[in-house]
Amino acid sequence: MKRVKVALVSVYHKEGLGEILRKLHEEGVQLVSTGGTGIFIESLGLPYHAVEDMTGYPPILGGRVKTLHPKIFGGILARRDNEADRGQLLEYGISEIDLVITDLYPFAETVASGANERDVIEKIDIGGISLIRAAAKNYKDVLVVASKAQYTPLLHILEENGAETSIEDRRWFAKEAFAVSSGYDVSIFNYFDNSDSSAFRIAIDNNILLRYGENPHQSARFFGNFDKAFDRIHGKEISYNNLLDIDAAVNLIDEFDELTFAILKHNNACGAASRPTVLEAWKDALAGDPVSAFGGILITNTDIDRAVAEEISKIFFEVIIAPDYDTDALEILMQKKNRIILIRKETEPASEQYRSLLNGVLIQDRDLRIHTAADLTPVTTACPSQRETDDLLFANKLVKNSKSNAITLVKNKQLCASGIGQTSRVDALRQAIEKAKAFHFDISGAVMASDAFFPFPDCVEMAASAGITAIVQPGGSINDKLSVDYCNEHGIAMVKTGIRHFKH
Q1: Stretch 112-121: mean pLDDT
Q2: Fewer CB within a 10 Å sphere, N or C end of the chain?
Q3: pLDDT, tens digit, for every residue of 358-387?
Q4: Starting at the edge strand that comes first in sequence, how are the strands of the sheet with 6-10 ordered?
Q5: Which entry of 234, 266, 283, 437 is annotated as an active-site residue?
Q6: pLDDT tens-digit series, residues 71-87
Q7: Higher pLDDT, 63 or 216
């Protein structure tokens, strides 16, 4: 155990600090501080020593230099069990500092506010970051508190042990301090990097220990602020696979402006429909594949009422996501204790995606392109009708969010069937046609979307035999003309987007 006798306090955020300072004073700890924090200490009626009285220098360069002095850093970095260090402290009249409470200028917040570069640069902390690293390095003798998030743990120690700290306490606070300093440097680097991706740097503090990973024998954590995106109002803890499905569900529903309901299983839509009412949308989404819907993820872009809650409660599902729920709808949905009920909040989607593989990380821009009718370029003599155009856009949104190779069949803004994750596009289409038939869909007059081009006309031949009347695909194959010619011969309208949507 080490007893705190001298504490250096120099902070930007003072909320919650008063109780700590009073407790330190009660324990006989001498407080040392800088200008703004010193004024705050005085306002509490507590005594303190000014840093400039210890160093013999006032703050200079507009406050850029306050604590950067051997009499401060010597007192922090001195090894108490090192005879030479103790001798130099005595020689130069340096007092030991046993506790450092500091934080950093709000750099990331200043950048996010849209401030000009001069103001941003002034929020790059020098003294604070140096104090944090020095105190954390010498954790065997010094306790460091590097952010207001650590005020509560410090207060607990003071209440339980007075001004004495254990090596375990000091090492934990040092670990937290280096998390603060490294995250701060990441923010600064990314600002100067200006999205050039000259190096991969990311820092996330919030994390959730998940029940397990993709499989029960794998451990897993989620790093991110889940509560910023959702309110979890009922159900068991979120799992690794839940998170993957929730992410896929959100990406899909964000494609739609009109009222839409979707059901997902293993990151793919197995049912989706856009309708005037949420009850109609739910029933037609479920009709797409009532078998796969079992244990699925449900999402809609409108509120859930009692009538819908009664219907969807007739099947087993893992998660439901909506902007809100009527009170009587929640009463029904919450009857299953493990059912996860999420309210989605308004958040901006991330602009980039990361994926670890081999011995590195892949990074790419997120596919945020949403096609409109203006993006559909006719390549055949026949042009799609307005109804077919609406269905082609609907189908293209679904295929974009399905695992490749993928084909979706849509009629009247309802997913009739999809073929997903196949090694051959022909197999994907065959799977979709067979599935549509299995659930008694009449796909005559339906449209088809493909996530990539057709290298041969075999897919359009199968589509024509099934009664498909319009097709959307990226185009770009050297053999595009073969598929276009076949469509012209059979009166099928084909449009291209020029954009492929592979998804692995």
Answers
A1: 92
A2: C
A3: 999 888 888 888 889 999 999 999 999 999
A4: 49-50, 30-33, 6-10, 99-102, 143-145
A5: 266
A6: 889 999 999 989 999 99
A7: 216
State the Cα–Cα distance between residues 104 and 139, nearest whole angstrom: 19
Determine whether 217 is an active site residue.
no
Residue 6: what are its φ and ψ, rounded to 5°? -130, 130
Residue type, 365: D
CA distance linking residue 287 with residue 264, whole number of Å? 13
Q: At what angle do helices 480-490 and 458-466 cross, to 10 degrees?
A: 20
Mean pLDDT of the chain: 92
Write down the pLDDT at residue 105.
Answer: 87
Distance between CA 22 and CA 257 in Å, rounded?
Answer: 55
**Residues in CB range of 277: below 8 A, 6 or more apart:** 259
Task: Note the helical H segments in 288-385.
Answer: 306-312, 327-333
Q: How far is CA 407 from CA 171, 394, 451, in A?
A: 55, 12, 7
Q: Which tops the pLDDT comparison, 350 or 401?
A: 401
**Alpha-carbon gap, residue 278 to 320, rounded angstroms:** 14
What is the three-class DSSP state of 121?
A: helix
Q: Counting Cβ atoms within 10 Å, is residue 455 exposed (0-12), middle (13-18) or buried (19+)? A: middle
pLDDT above 70 covers a percentage of the chain that reads 100
Residue type at 184 in one-letter notation: Y
Structure tokens of 114?
């849209």
Cβ atoms within 10 Å, residue 106 = 15
Locus of tokens 């020593």: 49
DSSP 8-state symbol, 261: E
Catalytic residue among 5, 14, 49, 137: 137
> Reduced to 3 DSSP states, what percent helix, strand and coil does the chain have, rounded to the nearest 5?
40, 20, 40
Tell me whether residue 23 is one of the annotated catalytic residues: no
